């Protein structure tokens, strides 16, 4: 089993026009603990596309999930997911190696724990793109988790997107849509809801959430406040 369980961190060439800046100062080191941002939503809602555009040029840690399902056309092992056997997954789960893990439509998904704790401690924001049940598990374990639910414009549009992928049988699509109905009704339990009806607008919303969370007074450490007050 590969020792590399996550994608490399993205090194920014410059801050984005949205005003979201890198988390770590070269002169002073981490000024705060990183944000633990959990993005979830129904299958087919466009989480992957949103995530790639949102995180472009940001110095964040994207935690790649493990899964027992087969790779879809265009998915890259070690980039999109860490594809493993059911036996490998179960062994890692029994060893306590996942922050969360859940089963979805017959396949298992999990988020490795260790790399996330390390990234947060060094002041780097961590992004998890996981299933709804997994997001609820993270929320139960961590009060600091920022939960974002990505909402489709409608179930009809979600059906169109799932059918357009042409990767699953009609029966499996119906199962995903039935699950999506249940998940949408749980959206009010999340801190934020972003409707993915326009890609650029949805990305702007995600950047605004990230910036607002960074500016919360509760995230300032005593050392930072004392340093400012002593100047």
Automatic annotation (TrEMBL):
Region span, Disordered: 1-26
EC number of the protein: 2.7.4.8
Catalytic activity, as annotated: GMP + ATP = GDP + ADP
Compartments (UniProt record): Cytoplasm
Entries under Gene3D superfamilies matching the protein: Guanylate Kinase phosphate binding domain, P-loop containing nucleotide triphosphate hydrolases
GO function terms (MF aspect): ATP binding; GMP kinase activity
Domain of life, per lineage: Bacteria
GO cellular component, one term: cytosol
All residue ranges annotated as the Guanylate kinase-like domain in the record: 34-211
Keywords: ATP-binding, Cytoplasm, Kinase, Nucleotide-binding, Transferase
Residues engaged in binding ATP: 41-48
Classification via SUPFAM superfamilies: P-loop containing nucleoside triphosphate hydrolases
Family according to the record: Belongs to the guanylate kinase family.
NCBIfam families found in the cross-reference section: guanyl_kin
Role played: Essential for recycling GMP and indirectly, cGMP.
The protein's name: Guanylate kinase
